[in-house]
Amino acid sequence: MIFSRQKIVGWIMVVASAAYLLYFWRIKVMMPGPLLTGRDWFNLITAIAVLIIGIANVRLAAMRDRNRRLD
Q1: Which end of the chain is more exposed for a tag (fewer CB within 10 A), N or C?
Q2: With 70 as the cut, is the pLDDT of residue 44 above it?
Q3: What is the spatial distance between Cα 11 and Cα 65, in angstroms, rounded to a whole number?
Q4: What is the residue range of 44's domain?
């Protein structure tokens, strides 16, 4: 079995950003505390962007693997 580096990196990006998004939701949004700062918003937008890029990486790696098997 050959591991695709692109797929591994994609899954790492997905897991890391999903973990941060869960932390953000649980700690920053659901708990009482100070208002969200500019850094919090930047981190949230960055985590969403990394999640999207990670999903694209996983899908592109799967598509590349499928195309290699057909040839």
Answers
A1: N
A2: yes
A3: 16
A4: 5-70
